[in-house]
Write a structure and sequence with these properties.
The model has no long low-confidence stretch (mean pLDDT 88). By secondary structure, the protein is mainly alpha-helical. It contains four helices and no strands. Helices cover 56% and strands 0% of the residues. The longest helix has 24 residues, at 71-94. It has two domains: 2-63, no CATH class; 69-112.
Length: 113
């Protein structure tokens, strides 16, 4: 479960995507065809790892899918997301911690983020 939650972290996006593409290539899967073949059943560990990777990528894809929804829904989700980020930034400032990326309501420009 922890891995699935961490898969939504955009800081990991590029490396996770590269790892997923590598896994697809290793399994001989092109253009998303035959996705069931991605599960490596050679050993219990490989099966767990490939299932975990597939779950993580599925949740991450759902997490970043907001921008392909109708505009009125996408904009609502964007505002909700940034309010969550800004609340985190406010708490970080209160605790004298460095403010995380996109979490400073005074310097973050939502439209270019």
């Amino acid at each position: 479960m922890v891995g699935i939650i961490l898969a939504t972290d955009m800081a990991r996006h590029a490396s996770d995507l590269a790892n997923f593409k590598n896994l697809m290539e290793q399994r001989g899967i092109k253009n998303g065809a035959n996705q069931a073949a991605i599960i490596d059943t050679d050993s219990p560990k490989k099966e767990f790892d490939t299932r975990q990777t597939l779950l993580e990528m599925t949740v991450h894809a759902a997490d970043v899918s907001t921008q392909v929804r109708p505009f009125d829904i996408a904009i609502q989700w964007t505002w909700l997301l940034f309010e969550e980020f800004f609340e985190q930034g406010d708490k970080e400032k209160e605790q004298k911690l460095p403010v995380s990326f996109l979490c400073d309501r005074t310097t973050t420009c939502i439209s270019t983020s």
